[in-house]
Fold:
Amino acid sequence: MGLTALCYNWGFFTVLGYAPFPMKLGAHELGYVFTGWGVLVAVFAIFGAPRLQARLGIARALYLNLALFAVDVLAIAIFTDSRTVLIVAVIVAGIFIGVNNTITTQAVMTVSPVERPVASASYGFVRFIGGGLAPFAAGKIAEHSNVHVPFYIGSAAIALGIVVLATGHGLLNDAERAQAAENAEEHEEEEAVAEELGSST
Structure:
């Protein structure tokens, strides 16, 4: 899961850290673009991800989301010279980032064999290796090739993340069963509290 997040973060931070350069926008215009991006991240992290996970399950939701994100970054790579396509694709990327952040983090915390603080720190360390290196590497790669190549690599990194994720399919199933058990326990506790309140009145 951590290696998948590293690959995903490589694509994510290539978009976040390097896409503003080919946009060639002013500070305010760039702020509007990333405000739209941020709103979609928040909305889909809070509302979209739980609904998608409930409908498809953890594994299929992650596979689908990462595949669509890879396509989105591929569109940025192909149409980097089109400011309109670039802006729209960057904003739309917020959907996939929001969904992935929520579902992946929950899955990691659920199946980790260590305490959650340790799991969270370890997971964050591994995934932000990609986040830290990607923007720097994108600039160097563009210097020695062209502005499209960093995004092609970002898209390929996300696709590689899907392959890595597939090797841990069993962990995703374990996470799904564990979350289902937790939800069932919470539901039973809520029913017990409701019964106690009802009997006391």
